[in-house]
Design goal:
By secondary structure, the protein is an alpha+beta fold. Helices cover about 35% and strands about 20% of the residues.
């Protein structure tokens, strides 16, 4: 597993340029350095301010992409927008380039050939693949699960996999890893809501933000699934008009234009789409004369967690969450 940057922001570059890579470009070209000790010395020289434990983690990640990964190895990366794993085969030696992939200098060429939906995998595999380590080996159980998903076979959920971690991984790294896994599982839970429940969740979120919100009756709502305002009647500003689309497809520019066309001066538009938005749709929202906020699945999961303490009982019933305490540093 090779993480395409934090939050998967490099995924499109990985796919389009048929490449995978990691950062730490300050370490320089490792073509002449293949062993752990040599890479560790380069890392220590480039990042003297890092703790010994953090230097070891960086060294191991660089060693994996430089030496451990070989031509013919199967690798995968994650597309957080489509919630799919992209799987391919390494077909080139290590190379160093600062102009091929954004924020990544240590690269390997990959022939990407198949996608697998995260929803097709068992909870154990999803948990393992949720690790925030830059490069790691998910293990044979996950590989078998992926192969079954590619073949269209259904499997019984396996016991939870062990947490993927490095021995020297520090408390901060483990906390980030745990938060990332939790975030992905919350997104899984949100996707199991029905369209009506997603509208109710949007209303609950707006109430948690201090508005009085209601779901509109079924019918030709003209893009008004939820209406919210300070007084609940729409007399006080701002009045928030929310459209909620709970589907896999991305919303396009025409969808946004239709929504914006139904807004009037003084309104604030909120468009929730669990399938995300196309680049053109985001452009339409940016250039709208009426303020419009776009919320995709990732944003929604973040907002739910941030404001969950102020959720009413109806909102909490839709997405039951528990608090986990963590030692303070």
């Amino acid at each position: 597993m090779v993480r395409a940057g934090q939050g998967g922001y490099l995924f499109r570059e990985f796919e389009e340029k048929r490449t995978m890579g990691v950062g730490w470009g300050e370490v320089g070209d490792l073509s002449s350095v293949s062993q752990v000790d040599g890479i560790r010395a380069r890392v220590a020289a480039a990042f003297p301010e890092h703790s010994p434990g953090k230097q070891v983690i960086t060294t191991r990640q660089l060693f994996k992409i430089r030496t451990l990964i070989e031509n013919g190895d199967r690798v995968l990366t994650y597309d957080p927008v489509q919630r799919e794993y992209l799987i391919g085969t390494v077909d080139g030696p290590y190379r160093y380039s600062t102009g091929t992939i954004s924020d990544s200098a240590h690269l390997r060429n990959v022939t990407w050939d198949v996608r697998v939906s995260r929803d097709k995998l068992t909870p154990a595999s999803r948990n393992t693949l949720g690790s925030t380590l830059t490069i790691f080996e998910p293990g044979e159980d996950v590989l078998a699960d992926i192969e079954n998903a590619i073949a269209g076979k259904s499997v019984s959920p396996a016991p939870p996999s062990a947490v993927v971690s490095e021995p020297e991984q520090g408390l901060d790294e483990i906390r980030e890893d745990t938060l990332n896994r939790a975030h992905e599982f919350i997104k899984d839970r949100l996707l199991r809501l029905s369209p009506d429940e997603m509208e109710a969740l949007t209303a609950a979120l707006l109430r948690a933000l201090g508005y009085k919100a209601r779901v509109t009756p079924k019918g030709p709502d003209r893009g008004r699934d939820v209406i919210a305002s300070p007084d609940g009647l729409g007399f006080q500003s701002p009045r928030v008009i929310a459209e909620v689309k709970h589907r896999r497809q991305q919303m396009g520019s025409q969808d946004l234009r239709s929504f914006i066309g139904g807004l009037r001066d003084g309104d604030r538009g909120l468009y929730v789409s669990t399938g995300g938005f196309t680049r053109e749709a985001r452009y339409e929202a940016d250039r709208s004369s009426v303020p419009v906020t776009l919320v995709d699945l990732d944003d929604l999961a973040t907002l739910v967690v941030e404001h969950y303490e102020r959720f009413d009982s109806d909102g909490r019933a839709l997405v039951p969450l528990v608090r986990i305490y963590w030692p303070a540093t």
